[in-house]
Amino acid sequence: MFALKAHDVAALERMGDKSAENLIIALEKSKQTTLPRFLFALGIREVGEATALTLANHFATLEAVEAASLEQLLDVPDVGPVVAAHIQAFFHQAHNIEVIDKLINAGVQWPAIEKPSADSQPLAGKTFVVTGTLTGMSRDQAKARLQALGAKVAGSVSKKTDCVVVGADAGSKLAKAQELGIQILDDGAFQVFLADLE
């Protein structure tokens, strides 16, 4: 897709010059990404958005992730032996490296990551779940704020969950948190919690 030129696309059925130009512009814009999004998009087994973000923040560069030993990968929060093995296996396959090189040569890029200081990551090593409807921010915004403070944000409640943020109509995740005795922050308490940390 990134190798396409406007005249190639315009020659396709039902594609005029304007449509072709718009597609090429959209493709150019899509080349600007972030390292966490790029790692997630590679489709490495067991590496979801949260793990991709953790890897990016831990290693700061794609080259460092590619070259990481099994021991170095196991030092990453939330990366266990199975996930570490999948990551290492992915970057040891010549075809995968070839695809990555082609994408970068086609212009896919992202801004450099500055490793966050420990002071800026007070929630490092903590796992949060956000559920229900919050006032003042969306769940995605709440997730981003927590991740910026170093937390992992999971989609389900388990014994490994440290805290559940609950809005209106929280449902089964709230019940599960209560059952497991996990810390619960309602909407107002969550706002105060963030204000104290930020």
Write up this protein.
The protein has 198 residues and is α/β, with parallel strands linked by helices. The chain has 2 domains: 35-105, Orthogonal Bundle (DNA polymerase, domain 1), CATH 1.10.150; 118-197, Rossmann fold, CATH 3.40.50.10190. It is 51% helix and 8% strand. Helix 3 packs across helix 4. The N and C termini lie far apart (42 Å).
Short description:
By secondary structure, this protein is an alpha/beta fold. The chain has helices spanning 6-10, 17-30, 35-41, 49-59, 62-67, 70-74, 81-91, 94-105, 139-148, 172-180, 187-197; strands at 127-131, 152-154, 163-166, 183-186. The chain contains 11 helices and 4 strands; from the N terminus they run H-H-H-H-H-H-H-H-E-H-E-E-H-E-H.
Please outline the helices and strands.
Layout (H helix, E strand, L loop, with lengths): L5 H5 L6 H14 L4 H7 L7 H11 L2 H6 L2 H5 L6 H11 L2 H12 L21 E5 L7 H10 L3 E3 L8 E4 L5 H9 L2 E4 H11 L1
Parallel strand pairs: 1-2, 1-3, 3-4
Helix pairs in contact: 3-4
Biggest sheet, in brief?
4 strands, parallel
Distance between the termini: 42 Å
CATH superfamily name of the largest domain? BRCT domain
- Percent range for β-strand residues: 5-15%
The count of β-strands is 4
The CATH class designation of the largest domain is: Alpha Beta
- CATH architecture designation of the largest domain: 3-Layer(aba) Sandwich
Write down the secondary-structure element order: HHHHHHHHEHEEHEH
Number of separate domains:
2
- Count of helical stretches: 11
Radius of gyration: 20 Å
Category from helices, strands and their pairing: alpha/beta
Mean pLDDT: 90
Helix content: 40-55%
Low-pLDDT stretches are none
Sum up the overall morphology in one term.
Answer: globular
Might you state the CATH topology name of the largest domain? Rossmann fold
